[in-house]
Amino acid sequence: MADIGARDGSSRDKILEVAEALYARRGFAGVGMREVAEAAGLGKSSLFHHFRSKVQLYLAVLERVLGRIDERLGAALASGDAPAAKLDRWTDALVDALAEQPASARLLLRALFEDEQFDTEEWPEGQAVDQRVESLLAGISRLLEEGMRAGAFRRASTPHVVQTLIGAAIYHFASGELGETLLGGPLLSAEAVRTRKAEMKAFFHEGLAARPAQSRSGDDG
Amino acid sequence: MADIGARDGSSRDKILEVAEALYARRGFAGVGMREVAEAAGLGKSSLFHHFRSKVQLYLAVLERVLGRIDERLGAALASGDAPAAKLDRWTDALVDALAEQPASARLLLRALFEDEQFDTEEWPEGQAVDQRVESLLAGISRLLEEGMRAGAFRRASTPHVVQTLIGAAIYHFASGELGETLLGGPLLSAEAVRTRKAEMKAFFHEGLAARPAQSRSGDDG
DNA sequence: GTCTATATCACGATAGAC
DNA sequence: GTCTATCGTGATATAGAC
Question: Which of A25, A160, A187 should one mutate to test binding to chain B, selecting the residue with the greatest count of B CBs within 10 A?
Fold first, then answer.
């Protein structure tokens, strides 16, 4: 019962795809079911056949985006590398995930606010969303604590570092026009994505303060 | 300024105050004029007497929030201190501003997306908003570049550092329930605010990597 | 599974009395 | 400046034919 219609995803997937883009652009309240239906090439009532309510559709979109990101980040953490190298991989994976699905950063930031409008525990899709978030935070938190114990990272508040890492990545890719004005170019070009990774990793490794000449490892691309 | 009836701000200020809280919680599309009016103790038509349209009200709320923040940050940059100390003050001021007005972080993040729904240049309030943002970004950018020239900061991409600073602050205070779960306590208590300032400044100064006291062997800790 | 209605309600905005 | 009443539109969601 839990996976009805999972095999025939032709309409369902199309709906999730167009809804993701629309919700990212104008948010939960700003997108009507009629608009989603038309963008998916369906009548409004057909859309209600696939998703019983607007909330359910929204949560399903969220879960799909979070699932993609969580899988990538989990893979980045699965290697046997040293903590600092793992954090670099995690950063690369997060930036890649956000950049490859341009809607995701905005969708997730919006979700931060909008899921307070309804109770996520009321819907099965909402519980899946909560689990994905928990998995994501637990993964990076575990890495940071391992790294501190091993002496690779300085002693800091793990939750605060997590907040800083996520904020630095997600805000950047959600900043849209404002960010592009600041950068003087696109946010999502291959070059801009490469630069963002390098700048973030340099920040994590060195902070901002100038330092006397010191040995460093290189960065990837 | 060019405002009519600015002397009697009793209704107008009340409207802006309640609208700020509502827009922060549910966004532009999610809050109706009727709800704003009732929260301000007015009828809907009376609200339309003070603000000719919903867009105008929204932009006025935004401008007020940005104005408060821009003034604080400007003051932090006005001192004659060294760049690193100025950046610390700027960080303190940004964190204080976001923490003292709990709605502001969410409101500003939402505005990142939502002002693409209408043309800010079409309304005088929108132009004021754009000017505030420009002033804010120019201020911190100037400080960073001065600091790099003076050798206080390492050479980095100024716009990327700006994105990281803003993202680290604004995401944290907009993260709401999720952030409080992660922190295991409130985001806005005096202690939590103090901690956030310290963690952010430590990150800017040192990054995350442990700094070897003598050599890079990684055996300390 | 998709469709054409339709029910019910809230939206932004306006008119005009007081 | 605040109110009641209303216009026109579009929202979520349902009923039921095919």
Answer: A160
Residue B23 lies in a domain: no
Q: Report yes or no on A184 lying in a domain.
A: yes
CA count, 13 A, side-chain hemisphere, B32: 6
At A213, is the pLDDT very low, low, confident or very high (cuts 50, 70, 90)?
low
Whose structure tokens read 């909008």? A114
pLDDT in tens, B51-81: 999 999 999 999 999 999 999 999 999 999 9
CA distances in angstroms from A184 to A51, A62, B128, B160, listed in the order given: 41, 31, 22, 11
Q: What is the CA radius of gyration of chain A?
A: 19
Q: Evaluate whether residue A108 is within a structural domain.
A: yes
Structural domain includes residue B81? yes
How far apart CA A76 and CA A93 sit, in angstroms, is: 7
Q: In which band, very low, low, confident or very high, does the pLDDT at A211 lie, cut at 50, 70 and 90?
A: confident
A166 close contact with B: CB closer than 8 A: yes
Which of B72, B62, B33 is CA-nearest to residue B125? Answer: B62
Touching check for B114 and chain A: CB below 8 Å? yes
CB A197 within 8 A of CB A95: yes
Domain of A176? 60-206
Q: For A134-166, what is each residue's pLDDT tens digit?
A: 999 999 999 999 999 999 999 999 999 999 999
B133/D9 CA-to-C1' distance in Å = 35
Locate tokens 């399903």: which residue? Answer: A60
User: How many domains does chain A fold into?
Assistant: 1
Which tens digits make up the pLDDT trace of B142-188? Answer: 999 999 999 999 999 999 999 999 999 999 999 999 999 999 999 99
CATH number of the domain that B126 lies in? 1.10.357.10
- What is the average pLDDT value for chain B, to the nearest integer? 92
Task: Round to the nearest angstrom and report the end-to-end CA distance of chain B.
Answer: 59
Bases of chain C within 7 A of a CB of the protein: 1-5, 10-16
| Mutation site for B-interface testing, chosen from A22, A171, A200, A217 by largest number of B Cβ within 10 Å | A171
Strand C reaches within 7 A of the B46 CB: no
Q: Residue A214: what pLDDT?
A: 52
By the CB < 8 Å criterion, does B206 face chain A? yes
